[in-house]
């Protein structure tokens, strides 16, 4: 489903209903920037340095689209068929006097050009993007305004924060194809600045939102023998390896992904849509979910060990 301000009530109701009995949620974002000029990634960086830089990026830029795919089992049971419901949501910061400030963010020309080349509608983003504020801003707003938390006016202003709260309350594992997506969501919905200088505080913040995080980029190296790391190419390679192992009759778990609801219409023939919809956040989250399903079938022990929150 595509989420805009004008359709958000319908999207939220569908999203909340599908959270029940789900196994995990795959996440992807499209962003106004992805790095800090003059500070490229290097193998010499420590984990702490990389964490600080990723947080600075998430605080500096903002999300354009949020992609979420809820993965569950057909009928809610243990059937081999994985069901996938995907959401592509335009998100724009709430603008209003209640915050006591006018939210701002940086944009990289190259990032905006990249999104434009992949058919992102910036007018839709700005005019009809679902508003949001983080939990910290919401608390301050409620304290100073005296507004009631469940009033229609309040719910409209906090917007996407309602969906984020529902997602966190479901206590589902998050699957990402790079931790940067998660940091952007934490900056958008939890607090800003992030506790980038305190890894324990960051871990606690993440644990409040999800019991486990799986990073398919990390699994790329942990499982091994994969050469291409880009999401679409990695997905193709993982599916090919899965098919090869399955054809040899090695008892590998069966993987079948069934698209449900509007997802079955929007992303009906994924092989033909790859070039057209790659880098739409909802579509990329669907690919991330399916990639994870194949990796879990190929190397269940490695995937189980690779959870980023122990």
TrEMBL record:
A UniProt-annotated Pfam family: CAF1
GO molecular function annotations of the record: 3'-5'-RNA exonuclease activity; RNA binding
Xref: InterPro entries: CAF1_poly(A)_ribonucleases (IPR051181), RNase_CAF1 (IPR006941), RNaseH-like_sf (IPR012337), RNaseH_sf (IPR036397)
UniProt family annotation: Belongs to the CAF1 family.
Stored PANTHER family: POLY A -SPECIFIC RIBONUCLEASE/TARGET OF EGR1, MEMBER 1, POLY(A)-SPECIFIC RIBONUCLEASE PNLDC1
The name this protein goes by in its record: Uncharacterized protein
């Amino acid at each position: 489903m595509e989420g805009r301000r004008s359709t958000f009530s319908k999207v939220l109701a569908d999203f909340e209903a599908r959270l029940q009995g789900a196994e995990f949620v795959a996440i992807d974002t499209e962003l106004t920037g992805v790095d800090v000029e003059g500070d490229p990634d290097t193998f010499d960086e420590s984990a702490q340095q990389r964490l600080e830089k990723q947080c600075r990026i998430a605080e500096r830029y903002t999300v354009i689209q949020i992609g979420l795919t809820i993965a569950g089992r057909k009928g809610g049971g243990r059937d081999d068929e994985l069901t996938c419901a995907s959401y592509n949501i335009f998100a724009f910061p709430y603008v209003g006097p209640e915050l006591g400030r006018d939210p701002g963010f940086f944009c990289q020309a190259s990032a905006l050009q990249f999104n434009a080349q992949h058919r992102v509608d910036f007018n839709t983003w700005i005019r009809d993007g679902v508003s949001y504020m983080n939990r910290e801003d919401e608390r301050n707003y409620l304290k100073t305004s005296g507004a009631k938390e469940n009033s229609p006016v309040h719910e409209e202003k906090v917007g996407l924060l309602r969906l984020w709260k529902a997602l966190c309350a479901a206590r589902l594992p998050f699957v990402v194809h790079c931790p940067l997506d998660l940091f952007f969501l934490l900056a958008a919905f939890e607090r800003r600045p992030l506790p980038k200088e305190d890894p324990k505080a960051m871990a606690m913040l993440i644990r409040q939102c999800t019991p486990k995080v799986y990073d398919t980029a990390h699994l790329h190296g942990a499982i091994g023998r994969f050469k291409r790391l880009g999401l679409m190419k990695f997905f193709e390679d993982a599916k090919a390896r899965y098919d090869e192992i399955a054809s040899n009759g090695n008892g590998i778990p069966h993987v079948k992904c069934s698209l449900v609801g509007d997802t079955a219409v929007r992303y009906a023939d994924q092989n033909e849509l790859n070039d057209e919809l790659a880098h739409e956040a909802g579509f990329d989250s669907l690919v991330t979910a399916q990639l994870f399903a194949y990796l879990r079938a190929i190397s269940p022990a490695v995937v189980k060990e690779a959870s980023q929150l122990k």
